[in-house]
Amino acid sequence: TRFLRWASDRLDKNGIIAFVSNNSFIEARTLDGLRKVVGEEFNEIYVIDLKGDAYSSGQQRQREAGNVFNNAIRVGVAVYFLVRKEGVENCRIHYNAVQDFASAEGKLAYLRDNSLADLPFQLIRPDKHHTWINLAENAWDDLLPVATKETKVTKIVTRPDVIFKFFSLGVST
User: What would the pLDDT profile of 58-114 be if each residue is shown by its tens digit?
Assistant: First the structure.
């Protein structure tokens, strides 16, 4: 993220940044803020997900298969092209992933044998939480709150949509 910020700050009003990095940027929940900022700063984003995450397990690990660097690293890898165009509004995110179960050699051949213009990219529409892929229907906003900070220790909450009617710091010394 630091290198992405460094490169973005040095990019003119029109330009392209290309990165080969960990693919956690694509779907890690901890990087939703980064995806938001990248979506605000760039107009076109092209992601080629090469998979290969050795930290996954079971069926997911089998689908991730070989790492493009011949298992010299344990994280999944992706290639990103971030395009900034002056005067263009919004951001379009294009996603492409190698096929499941591809070996390291197969992934290298995929990169070698395809140009960026020939790859079948899927247009991504992030959700309100800036999730790009593996969108899940989470209804956290629709769940009943456990408590609310609107209450005090001695005041009973008048909101019927709160489970606990009291709110306090608990025991403090």
Answer: 888 888 888 888 888 888 999 999 999 999 999 999 999 999 999 999 999 999 999
Name the token pair of 137. Answer: 């229907």
Q: Which two tokens stand for residue 71?
A: 């298992």
Between CA 124 and CA 95 the distance in angstroms is 7
Q: What is the DSSP letter of 125?
A: -
Q: What share of the chain is helix, strand, coil (3-state, %, to 5)?
A: 30, 20, 55
Q: Are 94 and 46 spatial neighbours (Cβ–Cβ below 8 Å)?
A: yes
**Number of residues written out for the chain:** 173
Sheet hosting strand 122-124, strand order edge to edge: 15-22, 77-84, 44-51, 92-97, 122-124
Do the Cβ atoms of 84 and 13 come closer than 8 Å? yes
Q: How many angstroms separate the CA atoms of 87 and 84, rounded?
A: 9
Query: Which 3 state secondary structure label does DSSP give 172?
Result: coil
Beta-ladder partners of 123: 94
The three-class DSSP label of residue 22 is strand
Of 38, 37, 56, 60, nearest to 47 by C-alpha is 38
C-alpha–C-alpha distance, residues 42 and 13, integer Å: 10
Residue 26, burial from CB neighbour count under 10 angstroms (0-12, 13-18, 19+): buried
